[in-house]
Design goal:
The chain is an alpha/beta fold. It has nine helices and seven strands, in the order E-H-E-H-E-H-E-H-E-H-E-H-H-E-H-H. The protein has a single domain, classed as NAD(P)-binding Rossmann-like Domain (Rossmann fold, 3-Layer(aba) Sandwich). Strand 4, helix 4 and strand 5 form a beta-alpha-beta unit. Helix 1 packs parallel to helix 2 and helix 4 packs parallel to helix 5. It binds NADP nicotinamide-adenine-dinucleotide phosphate.
Length: 258
């Protein structure tokens, strides 16, 4: 395979658009999500448009066995990724005590554990080949506490911190790690997280295609943090100046469920 890129959550939104951008840059792809029919449609489109090789895998990444089986399957196929894009993730707008543990646990498993597990599985081979990229999709939610989306915001703070730490460890190996921090973006996220009616998601949101192109370039440059959009960049800097209490109060105002 030509500089293959593994993308989690490529069946919609940012991951779907990242697959398109990577294929346009002549990378072969390995795509994983639960809705394999969508991945197969994307495979047909990208192989026809760009002449790249696209492999698909149906799997629920909240499950540790599935993650290991996915890794073993790529090993069997002789695939060492040039890049691993840990994009799959979801949120939920509900107060912490009203949200069910099953959903919260699945969010922790997907947003944190799967991203960490896949990085741990693939990084040794990427280091051995002397080049590679990790792109972990965090969020501007990583910069502040998020009342009514407490677990989601905290999970993204983990992604940002983890990515910076491994990026520092990886210096000199030829492998870089980038934390992508999009702000609210058009995708299926809003519907799944039930955030459509909150202030934060009002207005003209950037498309997943905009974010994906920005993300690909940041990953290639080996940037450690990539905050999408000027307003998001300014807001993420501002979060460093305000006390946490003020930050949570502001976020609470923006996100209070209708
Ligand atoms: N949209 C935003 O406003 C926004 C802002 C900041 C950060 N983000 C982050 O961007 C990333 C992509 O989200 P998106 O906005 O593109 O949302 P999306 O359209 O809902 O896409 C989420 C992707 O994750 C996959 N996924 C969900 N649960 C999975 C599971 N258990 N196992 C395997 N794959 C799973 C979904 O595929 P299947 O359902 O087919 O499995 C889908 O392909 C997430 O990490 C999200 O937190 C989004």
């Amino acid at each position: 395979m030509a500089k293959p890129i593994l993308i989690t959550g490529a069946s919609s939104g940012i991951g779907y658009e990242l697959a398109k951008v990577c294929a346009a840059h002549h990378h072969d792809l390995v795509l994983i999500a639960r809705r394999e029919e969508r991945l197969l449609e994307l495979k047909a489109e990208l192989e026809a448009a760009h002449g790249v090789l696209v492999s698909t895998y149906r799997g629920d990444l909240t499950d540790a066995d599935t993650r290991q089986q996915f890794f073993d399957w790529t090993e069997f196929k002789g695939i060492t990724p040039y890049a691993l894009i840990n994009n799959a993730g979801f949120g939920d707008l509900t107060s912490f005590v009203e949200s069910g543990w099953e959903k919260q646990n699945a969010m922790l498993q997907l947003n944190i554990v799967a991203l960490t597990h896949l990085s741990r599985l693939y990084l040794p081979k990427m280091i051995a080949q002397g080049q590679g990229r990790i792109l972990n999709v965090a969020s501007t939610a990583a910069f502040l506490p998020g009342p009514y989306m407490a677990v989601y915001y905290a999970s993204k703070a983990y992604v940002l911190s983890f990515t910076h730490a491994i990026a520092a460890e990886l210096e000199g190996t030829g492998v870089t790690a980038t934390a992508l921090c999009p702000g609210p973006t058009q995708s299926e996220f809003q519907e799944r997280a039930e955030v459509k009616d909150v202030k934060l998601f009002e207005g003209n949101l950037p498309t997943s295609a905009d974010v994906a192109l920005y993300a690909y370039n940041a990953m290639e440059k080996g940037q450690r943090t990539a905050v999408h959009g000027t307003t998001n960049k300014i807001l993420s800097l501002a979060t460093r100046l305000l006390p946490r209490k003020n930050l949570s109060d502001v976020a609470k105002g923006f996100q209070k469920p209708a």
